[in-house]
Amino acid sequence: MEYKFEMANTRKMLERVPFEKAEYKPHEKSRAMANEAMHIANVISWIPRIMNTPELDVTKPGSIPKVELPKNNQELLAMFDKNYNEGLKALEGASDETMMTPWTFRSGDHVIFTLPKVAAIRNMGLNHHYHHRGQMSVYLRLAGVPVPGMYGPSADEANL
What is the pTM of this model? Predict the structure, then answer.
């Protein structure tokens, strides 16, 4: 239920990404807006990856698929919808036993963490996603785009 609710909120946020301001950055150390939006749309792709593998080693070639930057909202939302649906399928098909199976995130011989898949999904798939979605709300605000409400109306929607 959380996944469906939160991803509906994310989709509202991504619908508002102004691709005419794709290169906008709130700070020199920040990603460009289109890159941040793409990251948000792709973070949830970790969910089926975690569900279907015993580990991820980021030093192995091809371990992190290259994704082409979307050119517009339609491409961004198609990317998000694909990843959302794959994540939903993985979560709905998971048994309690599978969710408690250890999953390892590593960089070669350095183990970053080993957690039950349920905790790895919470950490890498959901919390990471929510963090970047929060950042996108700041990008939108600073770029002059009305921010959608996530848990009730935003300041931009309060008088609607």
Answer: 0.92
CB distance 23 to 147 below 8 Å: no
pLDDT string in tens for the chain (160-residue length): 999 999 999 999 999 999 999 999 999 999 999 999 999 999 999 999 999 999 999 999 988 888 999 999 999 999 999 999 999 999 999 999 999 999 999 999 999 999 999 999 999 999 999 999 999 999 999 999 999 999 999 988 876 5
Secondary structure, 3-state, 37-88: HHHHHHHCCHHHHHHHCCEEECCCCCCCCCCCCCCCHHHHHHHHHHHHHHHH
Burial bucket for residue 125 (CB in 10 Å: 0-12, 13-18, 19+): buried
Q: For residue 118, give the H/E element and its range.
A: helix 117-120
